[in-house]
Amino acid sequence: MHGPASSGWLLVALCAATGAYCLLRMRSGVEEQRRAAGGEALMGFGMAAMAVPAAVFAPPSWAWSAYALLFGAVGLHALWAARARPRHLHHLVEAGAMVHMSVAMAGSSGHRHGGSGLPLLTGLLLLYFCAYVLVAGVRLIPVPAVAGAGPAPGWGDRPEVARACRLSMGMAMVAMLLMM
């Protein structure tokens, strides 16, 4: 999954910064945003850890199984949450992609990073996340402000920043899937 060191470090920085912002969003006064932010922070930091260049740190072979179990549990939680809120299906796909990449990394030989995974599943996930990135990008296009719409929300409650974080994680997922 790991390509050149420079792109790996860029992915680590992007995902870690997104995870850090999501941790700060957990202080929001809106309960739904706090819940979503916690899962997104976990996903951001997990993606950052998986993107560390292999030349710097080669995790032990059991680490990939631990990632698969962790993100499998995240996926089960997303499946449970999707019963009431179908928008959690994206989190299920995201967690499934992380499990897929973890299993592919666990199956790669020795300490070498990378592996083809299941090419069909990798391709389907890649198509999904490319479409997700395009849709998320369009949602960031500003709309004219409505006069008298009320006070601006706090910096942690700004939906456009949360959307930008989701967009950055979607782009990181595309990059990670391409490097498989």
Describe this structure in words.
The chain has six helices and no strands. It has 180 residues and is mainly α. The protein has one domain. α1 runs antiparallel to α2 and α1 runs antiparallel to α6.
Write the layout of secondary structure elements.
Blueprint: H1 5-25, H2 31-51, H3 61-82, H4 89-107, H5 119-139, H6 159-178
In brief:
This protein has helices at about 5-25, 30-50, 60-80, 90-105, 120-140, 160-180. By secondary structure, the chain is mainly alpha-helical.
Q: Regarding quaternary structure, how should these chains be classified?
A: single chain
Largest sheet: none
Cα end-to-end separation:
4 Å
Rounded Rg: 17 Å
The helix-and-strand class reads mainly alpha
Strand/helix succession? HHHHHH
Uncertain spans, ≥5 residues at pLDDT below 50?
A: 109-113
Shape: globular
Can you give the helix content as a percent range? Answer: 55-70%
- β-strand number: 0
Report the portion of residues in β strands: under 5%
Q: Report the total helices.
A: 6
